[in-house]
Amino acid sequence: MTDAQDDLIRTVALACYSYEAEAIDSQIADRAWELAIEHAERQELTPTEAQRQLWPPE
Questions:
Q1: Dist CA 56 CA 48 (whole Å)
Q2: Rounded CA gap, 45 and 11, in Å?
Q3: Cβ count near 11 (within 10 Å)
Q4: Rounded to 5 degrees, what are φ and ψ at 44?
Q5: d(CA 44, CA 3)
Q6: Helix axes 47-54, 26-42, angle to 10 degrees
Q7: pLDDT top residue among 1 and 50
Q8: pLDDT tens across 35-45, in order?
Q9: Separation of CA 3 from chain center
């Protein structure tokens, strides 16, 4: 793995965690989503674009 791939994985993991945590604690879920966006912006991406770079549509 490269550092760039690690960054993509972190962004996608935060976004996924945000989704999973929504039913448990909406404040934590919201913060995880904010962190996913912030992390993605450092790569000049959105969380969705980060996911597509890891797993391109076929």
A1: 11
A2: 10
A3: 28
A4: 60, 45
A5: 15
A6: 70
A7: 50
A8: 999 999 999 99
A9: 15
pLDDT, tens only, 6-57: 999 999 999 999 999 999 999 999 999 999 999 999 999 999 999 999 998 8
- DSSP alpha helices (H): ranges in 1-58? 3-21, 26-42, 47-54
Q: List CB contacts of 28: < 8 A, sequence separation 6 or more.
A: 21
* Residue 8 backbone zone (phi > 0: left; psi -120 to 50: alpha; other: beta): alpha
Pair of tokens at residue 34:
């904010």
Q: Which two tokens stand for residue 40?
A: 């993605």
Read off the pLDDT band of 58 (50, 70, 90): confident
